[in-house]
Amino acid sequence: MKTLQNNKKYIISLIISIAIALLIGAILMAVSGFSPIEGYGAMIDGAIGSPRLLGNTIEKSMELCLLGLATAIGAKGGLFNVGGEGQLFVGALFSTMIGLWLSDLPTFLVIIIAVIVSIVTGGIYALIPALLKTKLNVDEVITTIMLNTVAIKVCTYFVNGPWNSPLKSISQGTDYIDKSIVFSKIIQGSNLSTSFFIGTVVTVFMWFLMKKTTVGLEINVTGENKRFSFFSGLKANKLMVTSMIISGAICGLVGMMLIYGYQGHMTQSASNEYYFDGMLVAMIMNYNPIGIIIMSFFFGFMATGATMMDMQVGISVQLYDVIFSIIIFLMAAQTGIMVWLENRKTQKKAKQLAEEKAKGLVEETAGKEAE
Question: Do 187 and 304 share a domain, yes or no?
Fold first, then answer.
């Protein structure tokens, strides 16, 4: 019952935070000389105004959802994976090269191998900080941040060096993967491809794993209290490492989906810090898989719609980042605000009780004097 009440309060706080952020966004538009109605109208049009734009929104939402779930499974296991961007890069790079090196094989076989390679490389890259944490107690936040830089720099070296395309039409990056290998488009002209179905399967699997399985429960217990899980007979370190590997594997898979879905080849800008957006979505929703799915579509809607705000009205796409940041700030402060409100409520009740008690004593004294 208490958990239900807390969830209700959190949802109310989230709705209020979003409303405040949108209101501040409207004020910023008005101060800058733009109409908030036209601005938000352009955002809606840019997100769902046509099948192509709707496809882009769904694709962006799927990316945020998967990366948010990757963050959540690591956090539930007690490890905060900040290195998803690097894991995404290595998954993207090696799956790209599989598509180029094995292009003579049947299409379905190349895609299967590419999926496996992206999952394995992402998982292995996440294994490094996990082992450093469990074996040597090295802070995983520091190691994952540093490994992000390593992965991005190494990938940049390869795509601009040994694996750079010899074609003059490609200044940076690898050759394009053969069109027969990439995922087909669900909506022509959009970024939405059949990789969406892979993403859906992974999303359902992660929800089931985290909410409906013993392993998910054990991972959650380990993340909440490692010492308790140890004395309960659980293999805490193994569960922590497992959660981190799953997190990295999902990030690697997303890298593959980006390349085979709509980018077509590997470049040094394969990901524009996509993981960090997904990570923030997960944090806002307290690592709840259902919440992550819902919030991903909200932010995916805003992210794709913000482009049209710039094109139609001239409002900078940075407004999306401002609104995103305000929501994060307000949700981060939510716990403190709720505690402050609860304290005020308690103090008010205590004051009322004291006043009622004092009033009762006065009446009782007056009654005795009258007698």
Answer: yes
Identify whether 288 is part of a domain.
yes
Q: Same structural domain for residues 109 and 237?
A: yes
Q: In this structure, is residue 80 part of a structural domain?
A: yes
pLDDT-based confidence at residue 210 (cuts at 50, 70, 90): very high
Whether 90 and 118 share a structural domain? yes
**89 lies in some domain:** yes
Q: Are residues 347 and 327 in the same domain?
A: no
Check whether residue 234 and residue 350 sit in a common domain. Answer: no
3-state secondary structure the chain: CHHHHHHHHHHHHHHHHHHHHHHHHHHHHHHCCCCHHHHHHHHHHHHHCCHHHHHHHHHHHHHHHHHHHHHHHHHHCCCCCCCHHHHHHHHHHHHHHHHHHCCCCCHHHHHHHHHHHHHHHHHHHHHHHHHHHHHHCCCHHHHHHHHHHHHHHHHHHHHHCCCCCCCCCCCCCCCCCCCCCCCCECCCCCCCECHHHHHHHHHHHHHHHHHHCHHHHHHHHHHHCHHHHHHCCCCHHHHHHHHHHHHHHHHHHHHHHHHHHHHCCCCCCCCCCHHHHHHHHHHHCCCCHHHHHHHHHHHHHHHHHHHHHHHHHCCCCHHHHHHHHHHHHHHHCHHHHHHHHHHHHHHHHHHHHHHHHHHHHHHHHHHHHHC
pTM confidence score: 0.88
Same domain, 355 and 291: no
pLDDT at 370: 59
On the question of pLDDT at 240 being above 80, the answer is yes
Per-residue model confidence as pLDDT tens digits over 311-370: 888 888 888 888 888 888 877 776 666 667 677 777 877 777 777 776 666 566 666 655
Q: What is the pLDDT of residues 105-158, one digit of tens each?
A: 999 999 999 999 999 999 999 999 999 999 999 999 999 999 999 999 999 999
Mean pLDDT on 290-300? 92
Structural domain count of the chain: 2
Pair 353, 206 in one domain: no
**Per-residue model confidence (pLDDT) at position 10:** 76
Are both 276 and 359 inside the same structural domain? no
Domain enclosing residue 349, as ranges: 336-364
